[in-house]
Amino acid sequence: MTNPARSPRPGTGRRRFLGIAAAGVAAGQVGLPGQALAAGTDQAAPTATGTAAGWAPRPGSGIRPFRIKVPQRELTELRRRIQATRWPDRETVKDRSQGAQLARMRPLMDHWGTTYDWRKLERRLNALPQYITEIDGLDIQFAYIRSSHPDALPMLMTHGWPGSIVELLKVIDPLVNPTAHGGRASDAFHLVLPTLPGYGFSGNPARSGWNPDRTARAFHALMLRLGHPEYVSQGGDWGSIISEVLAVQQPKGLLGIHVNMPGTVPDDILRRLRNFDPAPANLSADEHRAYDRLLHFYRDGFGYAAMMNQSPQTIGYALADSPVAMAAYFYDKIAEWSDSDGEPEKLFTYDELLDAISLYWLTNTGASSSRLYWEGSQAGGGPFNAVSIPRVPVAVTVFPAEIYPAPRSWGERAFGNIIHWNEVDRGGHFAAWEQPKILAEELRTAFRVLR
To answer: Cβ(358)–Cβ(121) under 8 Å?
Structure first.
């Protein structure tokens, strides 16, 4: 979940990371420029990854192939830290009202500390065409998966928090190779999946200023650098906000956006929500349902965001030092926001949950990813504030277990050119991760009119 910003700030930087290597386009092997390894680690030997369906960066483009190789000692150290955890006592309630429950965390952490295999995810990610390039003084890492269908539509697809490319993996092949998944060749997409600044393998800003406005401009520059002067943008969570910010910026070539966490809540409704007032009497049934869910979020579920809005560095010490603290922090949100009745194990295997968490741990980006909340709070606004998009085509899919089910009536007040609005019957905040088939079909349907 996120808190958006709209105005750019100066400042760039580099992320410190643990033994992750990049390969230069030329024959020489180089590490990521300007990025230091964490103390006590060695840089893994860099090797080049494959290219995107026969595509290769043109010389002088500044795009370098990228490959992940986490040193084994970091994985050994992770297990040591998990096994040395000092556990709290059990919560004093029988539900999730005090947070991540001990009875759920202990077996998940036992698996992480003994049998979980990071290398499986590493191989899966390295099988994708991955690259890194410097934009506006910061390294942006991304996967670029081209379809074999010649008329594929380029799509920028942005993850959220506590997400990464891991939450998008299941939807890649249905979008790139639709004919193998019940779609038509004319439904195909070329996918550009960037990692947000301060997350995963992208650079970690050393100064403030990398807010959604600046990130959106960087991602537009990335699309142009890849040779896509026309494209669509999609996302949930922060990805929704990046897509909406792009639509506000209206760069030439942005054909339209699709979001699954739309910013539609009117200002007068937000004021009542933040005062914890009861719903206005004049709301429709759909609006009342959205209001009740939002009231629960602002009254009972906003603590994590308040912490990162105000003090990301403070929570960052726990996220950098204790893998169990990070896992509990993330697990609590996955349980709350997924369509799982508070039990994400109903939707995801232990390995899937730990893939998502391990990527943050092994890149030490718990604190730096949290700073995006602080960046957003400096400009005011909030995660669901209505965003005025009068002209750019907007498509919306409402998933029933999303933090709030956006009513179309609010969407029509915010978006002047709605090309698709649909409420599906299952799925939550992590749409691509939870329901990849549904999301893929929604994207095919939403963007057909723009092809």
So the answer is: yes
In tens, the pLDDT along 131-175 reads 999 999 999 999 999 999 989 999 999 999 999 999 999 999 999
CA dist 441 and 175 (Å) reads 9
Measured distance CA(212)–CA(196) in Å, rounded = 9
Domains and CATH numbers, the chain: 21-450 (3.40.50.1820)
| Cβ–Cβ under 8 Å, residues 207 and 10 | yes
Residue 319 DSSP SS3: helix
DSSP E strands in 153-220: the ranges are 153-158, 189-194
- Which has the closest alpha carbon to 439: 208, 186, 53, 178? 178
Report the alpha-carbon distance of residue 337 to residue 314 in Å, rounded: 24
pTM of the model: 0.89
The token pair that represents 228 in the structure block: 């896509």
**Cα dist. 105→109, 111, 329, 330 in Å?**
6, 10, 11, 11
Enclosing H/E stretch for 441 = helix 436-447
